[in-house]
Amino acid sequence: MGLFDALFRSSEILGIAEETLEFALESSEETHPNEYMGFLRGTEADRLDLDRDGLVITDVLVVPGTETNSVSATVKTNQIPNDVKALGSIHSHPNGVIKPSNADLDTFGRGSVHIIIGAPYRRTDWKAFDSQGKPATLNVIDVDLPDTEDFFDFTQADIDEELRR
Ligand SMILES: [Zn+2]
């Protein structure tokens, strides 16, 4: 399968990589009492040696310029790079309430899965929601993540090359 197909195939979200979830929980704890906030990116399941079609959430992109305080994390949308295709978002609630706020609901329309992590950030202190803010099932998948170095290194030149074939 070429890069072109990988980019344009419509994909189901199969779940989140265990390592990625653990990373987000740890980051939320480190950020406490401020909010942790990022966007979720995925990897094609077949690149993770899973014999399935779809995407696994493998990456949290923390947006530069996110202003955090103990009340809310505000993302300046003009600082999100255009080439980022986010599957959804992830953020923490230092007050421990794992429920979308009204402000969260306003932003959930972008992307299809939204994770909220609550203090005290244990392995079970998170929930996934859909774009309407309704609880959603998100599997945790134990996969080996490839070396990030070459993995997310798609450039426009790679894409152009693929389109020329
Ligand atoms: Zn929130």
UniProtKB/TrEMBL annotation:
Gene3D superfamilies given in the database record: Cytidine Deaminase, domain 2
Every MPN domain range: 14-135
Pfam families named among the record's database cross-references: Prok-JAB
GO BP term, example: proteolysis
Signal sequence residues: none
Molecular function terms, GO-annotated: metal ion binding; metallopeptidase activity
Coiled-coil region: none
Key words, A-Z: Hydrolase, Metal-binding, Metalloprotease, Protease, Zinc
Protein name as it appears in the record: Mov34/MPN/PAD-1 family protein
High-level lineage: Archaea, Methanobacteriati, Methanobacteriota, Stenosarchaea group, Halobacteria
